[in-house]
Design brief:
The protein is built from 13 helices and 22 strands. A seven-stranded mixed β-sheet has the order 9-10-11-12-13-21-22. The chain has a seven-stranded parallel β-sheet with strand order 17-16-15-18-14-19-20. Strands 1-2-3-6-7-8 form a six-stranded mixed β-sheet. It is 23% helix and 21% strand. The protein has two domains: 300 residues, Ribonuclease Z/Hydroxyacylglutathione hydrolase-like (Metallo-beta-lactamase, Chain A), CATH 3.60.15; 160 residues, Metallo-hydrolase/oxidoreductase (Rossmann fold, 3-Layer(aba) Sandwich), CATH 3.40.50. Helix 11 links the parallel strand 19 and strand 20. The longest helix is centred in the middle third of the chain and has 13 residues. By secondary structure, it is of the alpha/beta class. The two termini are 27 Å apart.
Length: 487
Amino acid sequence: MASDTEPNLTFFNGTSTIGGVQASVQIGDSAVFFDFGITPNPTGALFSRSSPAPVVGSLAAHLRAGMAPLVEGLYDPAQLAATGGSVASTVEPMAGRGRMLDQSSVLEHAKNTAIFVSHIHNDHCELLPFASPDVPVLMSADSAALYAGLTDVGALRPTPASVRGLVDGEHVSIGGMDLELIHVDHDIPGAAGFILQAGDRRIAWTGDWRAHGHVPERMAAFAERAAGVDLLITEGTTLRPDSSPAQSLSETEVAQRADRILTTTDGLAFVTPYPRNLRRLASLRDAAAANGRTLVLRHETLAGWRAAVTHGLSAPHPNDGGAPVAVLATGDANTHPTAGHTQVTIDDLRQNRNDFLVELQVPDRWVALAVGAGPDDVLIHSNGQPLGSWDPEWTSLMAWVQALGLDFVWLDSGGHAAPDDLAWLVETIRPTSIAAVHSAHPQLFPRTSAQLILPTRGQPFTLSDRLPRALGTRGADVERTMIPCVL
């Protein structure tokens, strides 16, 4: 138990994997958990797209796999009824001697507990359907609107917990702690971090962020408000042994290059964006309109966007500026046209090839065959699935491109901060210490004036604690003091 002035920090997951950050700050009878998703990386988690969790008993499976914090009272009791009603009884099969969770402790949740979700990417929010109705969930107002919209259309599952949407700068008390929400720049609406006053300590969490997006000024504001914190917790997704990592395009450059591509294309144009990057969709819509084309979206993409707007999403909206957005009518009996938007059919695409910019995700590649796609047509890949050349699905994408003879352009503008930007944030905030999470190589964090903390997975520590299990050092000693997050 933490003292009344010195909080305990625990990192349950995400210490040496990209995604799946699960951490808590606790002081006395008050605790904040952040974030509440799972890692999508099959090398760092037992469940993934290729090895999915069961639909029935999913919470129990995630707990037994070590992919959810082992904390009593954090989860919906109804979903643990079949396994004895508690986290301890649920994980008992894997807690036996010599088994994976043998050395893991089941913790009690604090009297005053809240869950903070930085943004609505699955690796930060996928555990929300398991949350206890008695534990409030905090996120930005735009994240709350997007989450509600995506649950309305079945893209995400709802949570039994009460979700509270906060505006930038709003303060919330969690027992004896004070949390201030601060917007950040990421590739999804509503991304936010926080500054937490916990006893005598100020702790800042960035969530996922970048400095090359639509609103980079948010990071300058974050740095100003977090100045001098005791601990800055930041993502480190781009950290890797490669000494010269590729630089992402800015969102402005993506829009400009998309415009040039459409100007010089006399044929069909396909695009593979990330469906929740709504600002990117709006930029593509505007580039299409400037070239006499209409952006044609999947029903699921447009329906989720519209539903988020009905729940109060501040921006962007599908028809901002009057540029048209249409929905692809594929004739699939499992989908329905999106009311109020023009339907574009396969025949429309085939007969009017230079009138459209068409969203083409993995399940819809057959559309390229149906419309007779060929060398006069272009595919713009822009951070949709597959996420990169390391993704097993990339080989399939390249096979389609080569077989059809498509012109292929990769407009890469990711959602994560470059190493130089990570160093800039630290030297601007000047924290006493930093913790790098959401990273496969946190030990490669750029050298800065702050003490680098490499949390040991599942082991509580305080900022006054200087034991090797809690704090790493730079250079050769890092590997000796860090326990990787492997299952």
